[in-house]
Amino acid sequence: MKKNHQPPEKGNTRRTFLTFLGTLAFLYPVLQFAGFKIPKKPTYVNISKPVPATGYLVTTGFILFDRDNKCWALSRTCTHLGCKLNYQEDKDILECPCHQSRFNVETGQVVKGPAQKPLTFLSVEKRQDDPLYVVTT
Ligand code: FES
To answer: What is the pLDDT of residue 10?
Structure first.
C-alpha cells in the first residue's frame, strides 16, 4: 500500500483557499458591474469661518451654501467626467469648465448636459460655535 506523504487536511485547506480566491476573482467584477461599492469612511470637514454675505463658500471639494435660512453643500465633482465645477453667481448655477454641463444649485439636478446624473448633496451641520459648519464628505 502506498503512503500519502501529505496529511489530508492540508490539501483540503489549500484547495478551499484556492476555490475561495477563484470565487472572489469571479465575483468582484460581477459585483462592480452591478454597481456594488464598498462604502467609504466619512470624512468630516470643519469650517471655522462664516459663509460670506454672498451666501456661498467655495472649497476644493464642495460648495457650501447658507442663504434664505437654508444651509446645504454640493460636491464640486461633475457627474459627467469628474471636472471641478465653478459657481456662476450671476446665473446661480454650477457650471463645468470641461464640457459646459450645468447644474441647479438648490436641487443639484442637471440643467444642461452632457452630464446625466445630479450632483451629490453633502450633509451639513450648522453650529453656534467653532467650527461653524461640519460637512460630511
Ligand atoms: S466633465 Fe463636466 S461636463 Fe464633462
So the answer is: 62
